[in-house]
């Protein structure tokens, strides 16, 4: 395999600067020249070396291996390219950032079956509800609700449309009454959710006669842990809101009573998302294919 040595300084500049513009300035060329050079290097070897979005740039696992190899003799560099091109089975570390409310993704079976099919892939899943640039954070992919994913990302549907639900235990409703309209929630003890300590509690959103509105709930209990919300509601601690599928087992058993269903409309569900499709790493392609089969 013939290596175009003229492209390697472009790659090293991007690897050092984590920014195409800064790399171009350092080399005295245009940003377009850097971008096209990296693309030619990737296409020649069929492997993505750089993950890029409009917000950030970082090396892929293959890119990190190449940068390390570039500090070694030329024979080692040639071996690194050959190994990249010969990568046939999924392998390496696959880092994913998933929101805590993605119940179907985090419930276990999807990830367990993927791991069984791809024993050479190490899954590293971080559960976080904070706003996250997956490229800058060093992740290969993320899982979030479709409405909050950046438009320059590629998305693969995990769940189809979702629907929120409001629920409370029979004991709470027996003691405090059942609200008939969302605005009555202001007079009830509510259990709210927030993604992080310095973020305001999530506003409860409803719809009436096709017109959306939200209710500024002032929860007596607030947490970033869905399990704590559910346990507190099950204990009669108040009324809470979450995705319908999170409540389903408890509604079916009678432990929770759904409320205000006429005011809750469906919305786009959860997606696996990632920044690029071209020269996708084999491990990432395996995850995408697995998610598509899982649905």
Q: What best-fitting shape do the alpha-carbon axes yield?
A: elongated
CATH fold field value of the largest domain: D-Maltodextrin-Binding Protein, domain 2
What is the terminal-to-terminal distance?
Answer: 40 Å
**What integer is the average pLDDT?**
85
Fourth-tier CATH superfamily name of the largest domain: Periplasmic binding protein-like II
Which value, in Å, is the CA radius of gyration?
24 Å
Largest sheet: 5 strands, mixed
Fraction of residues in H or I helices: 25-40%
CATH class (first level) name of the largest domain: Alpha Beta
The assigned CATH architecture of the largest domain is 3-Layer(aba) Sandwich
Strand line-up across the major sheet: 4-3-5-14-6
Summing up helix and strand content along with how strands pair, one would put the structural category as alpha/beta
Please report the total strand number as a whole number. Answer: 14
Which consecutive residue ranges, at least 5 long each, have pLDDT under 50? none
In terms of DSSP E residues, the strand content is: 15-25%
Structurally, the number of domains stands at: 3
Question: How many alpha or pi helices?
Answer: 11
Order of helices and strands: HHHEEHHEHHEEEEHEEEEHEHEEH
